[in-house]
Amino acid sequence: MNKVTPFLMFNDQLEAAIEFYTKTFPNSEVRKVARTGTDGPISSAEFVVGGQAFMGYNGGSYFSFSEGVSLYVDCANQDEVDEYWDKLVKAGATPTACGWIKDPFGLSWQIVPRRFTELISDKDPKKVKAVMEAMMKMVKLDVAALEKAYNEA
User: How confident is the model over 43-63, as pLDDT tens digits?
Assistant: First the structure.
């Protein structure tokens, strides 16, 4: 285990979340689980999603996630953005804005094409502003539209 590992408190949906996350993202696995009783539900787990280790616990109905914490998914290109976005939507996620989407367990994800990060790292503040303004109007990020805003600035 890493020295510092995110610990997620689920509202009694830990097992379903782990199943979905490990199926959706490569380089994922379940390392350890603890169950309530011999055949009971998972109460806590250590798992990896996309190479990132997590601890999880079924904390009960008084625990919920907020947008103050989100998981950032670095996508190589638009196809990868579309792939993860579509998998999350198919599972019942709610798209919000600017590449953010809330999964059916209440956890927020940022599905971000690497090209966006490259464009907003430009030294020309006009180009960066144009890209940011374009992004602010999007729900799912669109690389072609971001590049168009960049090129037209």
Answer: 999 999 999 999 999 998 889
Q: Give 131's contacts (C-beta < 8 A, 6+ positions apart).
A: 116, 119, 120, 122, 146, 149, 150, 153
pTM score of the predicted model? 0.93
- 65-153 has the same fold as 1-64: yes
Domain 1-64 has CATH 3.10.180.10: yes
- Give 81-142 as a DSSP string: HHHHHHHHHHTT-EE-STTEEE-TTS-EEEEEEHHHHHHTT-S-HHHHHHHHHHHHT-SS--
